[in-house]
Please model this.
Amino acid sequence: MKKALLYALLAVIPSLGMAQTGSDFMTAFKKADTNIVFDVNAEGKAYNVAWGMDAAWNWDFNMNRGVAHIGKKHLSIGRVAFQPTELVKDNGDGTYELTTAQKREMKSRCDNIRKLTGVKTINMTADQEAYYPVAEYVENYYGKVEEWYKLIKASVKYCQELGMTVYSVSPYNEPDLTTWKEGTKSQYKQLCKLIREDSFFDGIDICGANTLNCDQAMPWYEAIKEYVAEGNTHQLAGSLENYANFFSTIKSVGKIATADELHNVGEAIVGVNYGMERGIWWGFDSKARGQFCIDSNEGVRLGYGENAKAWSCGAVYRNNETGEVHGYLGSSERQASPSSYAFISKGKDVFFNGYGPTRMYVYDVPGGNGYQQGQINAERLFDITWGEDVAPFEVDGTYQIMNAYSKKMLTYMGTSNVQSTSRKTTGTTQQWKVNPGYVDGDISYWFIDNANANANVTQTHLNVLNNNLNAGAGVICFDAEHGMNEQWYVKYAQDGYFFIISRLSNKYLHCSNTNSGTNVTLQEGPTATTASANLKKYLWRFMPIDAKADTKAPNAPTALKAKQRIGSIELEWTAPEDDDPLTYTILRAEIPVLDGSPIEYTTIGRSVSSLSFIDNTALAGKKYAYKVFAVDYAGNRSEASEALEAAPLTEKALLCQLQFDDDLTDNSANHYDASLYGTATYSKVSSLIKSGTKSLNFDGNTYALLPYAPATQDEMTLTTWVRWTSGSNWQRLFDFGSGTDQYMFFTPNNGSEMRFVMKNGGD
Model:
């Protein structure tokens, strides 16, 4: 067993530094409302969800955006609406026929589903907005079970004649909203009975009423449960608990849980977690919804968390076909209040859209303060990455943007198309402010604004010309007040280059040739089989505004060597000769125990400006291989240095010592510096000092954190002097852990006594 002595106060979550140690991007975030703990290598939980688009809102633009973000491969169902307007014709032989107007509207909806999504399998529901408040239509159908039955039968028959397969019908839509005047629960039950007893509907399920308020879903389901195969609701009012419980109850009795009018990825995340098997999107937003549909079908869920009071939730999924891992956050369209989430990676350090390496990332989900009071229908997607080739930085600043294929710069051209032109040494037409930001809905996007705003030019936002969803769409600069066609997803690709993806169409910024003056357009994204030369047309590098258009990589660092310590490994190397200032990226791989196992390197440090780096996340008892590569001012990467093997020493020794003498510095050679949330104050009162010259004071709102590595020893001793005057029950003096099933903490008062607790799984 390995032993170590740790002299510290409060530990476990990472601290922020200057990228010179292995605990750089580890900051003392505020305490989040909800934790989402995940392991990128876990087996995970698979789900099987049928996704679809809704033509009840018959808008081809909305349908096309859903297809662009989800992809036809992941769409298997759709929804169309029948119109309770005129009475249908009774042919006198048990068949019924829609009016000309009803046929025209139904054909339009079926065409939009079939032609735009490629789907022919549909659910049918009522278009109550076409029905109410027209007095004649209300008179035709309100409470008249037979007329509803005839309309539904005629509508199903006509859809079948159009080549559609009707898998289920929802006789009423939002019946809990009594102003629609569809009918009572008793009349609804009579209607379902008529449908179920008619052999014409054999093979077609009855889907329960899609209540607007999920609190009403169970009462409406109970009224007709003997006739239905699907339980159904959507969430425009009602609690998260009732929404979740409805799906889990439907699933438990062997029926299909459905949400046929989804409005936010949060509804989908909660629904899938509790048993939802069919989800249909009403209005479609953007990447968070589309990627979630893809991941839920191609991968597994690694972590989940919810805040029922705030009506928000989050999850982490791994796509097993691509290997990508994504984090998601979502909230109620009309009821969400502000909340915060901590994503906690158990297995390894990772990057969240370029932030890292870290074990934890905290994000605030915006919300309102009452029903439809200040909500923005917030949802969020994160790329969670690791490995040898990761984003060189978080994209947030003013840059030149260079295309990998043309080796030329994205350039503002006034009222004309944005072009790829040769680098200019003066002016601001090639300077772009690239900042994360949001207006409403999917808040995963960046604004890309030309620096000509400083010259009072209004056409400054990178914009999709005429809201064009098609490949080949023009890209201009305009001022649509950061509308959906002026928001862009920045996704790391490779070798220091990024993809720039339109929120509007999910198409990729593209440069077709190497000529200066080439118009930049949007094109379908690359695939796994896209040739290397063509892939470069999609790749963009964010460079300092004074960097040259340089694509020549520097030489590799040499003479890599290691100083092995107890608790860390210090690396040193020799810089290559180069005209540019260089920074360095540190790669590490765990040496496999089994011969022949692949060595996989991951990034443990970036933007290191010195010629040394302290790896203080190396674990005792493990052996590692290290490599270093150089990055020049323009972002070009060298080849990696020759690999070097090293391991931390295992003798008993002091790992970390924090005196808190006006700072949070670790006095050991391992640099396990603490990070503070809140404002630090230090006391000189001698009676409060047991070591060093001062003591760190906590006011009940601050806390100090250490990197996680000191708590990874097989055996250790923690020693601390604390003067505790007051605090709530279960307040921690120190707390190591990664979740509710793995922790070690000490509390001076659990309500009756001091307590030290350790838990690892069930032990």
